Amino acid sequence: MASSSSSLACSCLYQVFLSFRGYDVRKDFLSHVRKELKSKGIIVFIDDEMKRGQSIDSELIGAIRQSRVAIVFLSLNYTSSSWCLDELVEIMKCRKEDQQTVMPIFYKVDPSDVSDQINKVGEAFENTCKGKTEEVKQAWRQALKDVAGIAGYASSNWETEAEMISKVASDVTDVLGFTRSNDFDEFAGIGARITEIKSKLILQSEEVKVIGIWGPAGIGKTITARVLYNQLSPDFPFSNFLENIRGSYEKSSDSNDYQLKLRLQKNILSKIFKKSDIEVHHLGVAQEMLSGKNVLVVLDEVDDWWQLESLANIHRYLAPGRIVIITTEDRKPLKQLRLEIDHIYKMKFPTSTESLQIFCQYAFGQKSPEKGFEMLAEEVTGLSVIFL
């Protein structure tokens, strides 16, 4: 990934500018990138609607200069467009002036072909150079050489385009300085619990991490798992938080165990891959689809061993570093399951200080008592600690 500037202009109108050769990427690859960026709330400028002339105009130059990040899709026919090359020159000027982060994607081309303008990239470039001044040609050559020297993303290095796109979007959010979700900051003690659980994960480890979060109803298992998921999911190309498994997959007297397991697998896979038409005809489908993938999965409110049995061997085939988080009120499913649990975290009851904060949050909308209610608040929370 390209290094980001520490002094980006504060007047940026757009967050990302996309430079591309429509002929190569518009209908498929580019559309998926745009969708992924949009899903993360990123504002993108794309010149689909602009009428193209012989050279880029002041409006487009303004859009480039008012974008914090430029993603350059260096495809096979990128150099066949003088418009694209002029865009690239302007983008590299912005980078040199320390105003913009440039992230090149080498889509089905080798970076050396771009840098040296050789092979098919070079042929297209030479045709575009016909009739141009030496000054223009030299500016294009230098821009191509410079952009090829930036650490970017080569499609040949990725197993799937989906994984590469997810990584690009995640890196863009990092460059833009997007913060992790703080939706749960008001929950007293959540930070300490998250820190303790994350210490068991060791994300750099080559080992699989399967974490069980166990405790009675209402103690905060789902909230804790949700915060973990929000913090970790941007680093995983495939992720899913499957809520309330207990309520969604209850076993009745006439239930067919096998069909229930197939339905659970289908739901998990559909959400991980964001496809509703996935067919699961046997319990080996999840293993086949997830094999070698870097996945984060949260299975929330598990209450019976059968809900996990169909997933018991999947973790053996995922990529190193993947994480499975299971929340449950009953520790038995974790013990009965033929799954290697790395750590079972027992949710702790809140301390007296945390209990006071929780009570005040509900009673007064803040973490401390209103003036004049200090004694009463402490008395109430003291009673709750005794009953716990």
TrEMBL record:
Q: Does the keyword NAD apply?
A: yes
- Per UniProt, which keywords does this protein have? NAD
Tell me a GO biological process for this protein.
defense response
Q: Tell me, what is one Gene Ontology molecular-function annotation carried by this entry?
A: ADP binding
Q: Which residues form the TIR domain?
A: 12-176
By its UniProt entry, which Pfam families does this protein fall under? NB-ARC (PF00931), TIR (PF01582)
Does this UniProt record's set of keywords contain NAD?
yes
User: What SUPFAM superfamilies does this protein map onto?
Assistant: P-loop containing nucleoside triphosphate hydrolases, Toll/Interleukin receptor TIR domain
This one is known as: TIR domain-containing protein
Lineage in the entry? Eukaryota, Viridiplantae, Streptophyta, Embryophyta, Tracheophyta
